[in-house]
Structure of Ribosome-binding factor A:
Amino acid sequence: MDQIRRNRLEELLREEISALILSGEIKDPRVASLVSVSRVEVNRDGSHAKVWVSCLEDEQASLDSAVQGLESAAGFIQSRIGRKLRLRLTPILHFFPDLGIKEGFEMVGKIKDLLGR
C-alpha cells in the first residue's frame, strides 16, 4: 500500500472510530464520550492498525479501562468500519493509551513553575 493511500485510510479510520464513540454506538460503559482518538497508524499491508486514544479525564485508571473497553469492542468497530468504508481488507484494530496530552500539560506546568509564573 502506498503512503498516500495509507495516510487517507488512517484519517478515515480515525474519523469513523471517533464518530462511533461520540454517537454512543459502543455500548461498553467503560468507553465514555470523553475518549478521543488521537492517532492511527496502519501497517504497510493494511492488515493491522494501531489506534491511540486519550481521555480528557485526569485519572489513568479511566484511560486504561477505556482502552480495555475498546479492545473488547474491536470486532464490532471493525465490522461497522468495514460496512461503511467498503474496504476489501478491514484492518484488525489494536488500541493503546496515549499519554502525550497529559504529559504535555505536566511539562507546561513544570516550565511555568521554573519561570515563576
